[in-house]
Structure prediction request, 147 residues.
Amino acid sequence: MADYDKLFEQALAEATPLSRAAQARRVAMRGDLSSALVSRRRRRVAVRAAGVLGVVLVAVLLFRNPSAEDRSRPSAAPQRSVVDCAIVRDDPEVLARYAVNVIPPAEVWIDDDALLALLASVNRRTGLIRTAGRVIVTGDAVDDFTE
Prediction:
């Protein structure tokens, strides 16, 4: 604060002579300007200190409090389950136990005469229409999917 007073006094000494009214205003302004300088300086120091304190607080919270994931982890390593394994080299029963059953396809290939005979056995007399190299099965020979 003493530095500001010296600067102010020096500026007054070097200034051009003022009227009495201007000198009175200058003296009145000196108190306001000095208090504004001091409060501005204090405000800057407070903002800097708050910023540093905030950074330190965040760092402390991050390092002191483990995250939720860390808290959910058990402190000791869990016991691993022991699985009994055996290597089977030449056992013919293994293939029999793990054989894949092949399901035959649902398609059945029959000729025209066999199809007409099957349809006649279930009282469906119609069935095939052959035209221009195409074969069409009639609608009344096929069951409706909606039933």
User: Anything to note?
Assistant: The helical segments are 2-14, 20-64, 68-72, 92-97, 112-121.
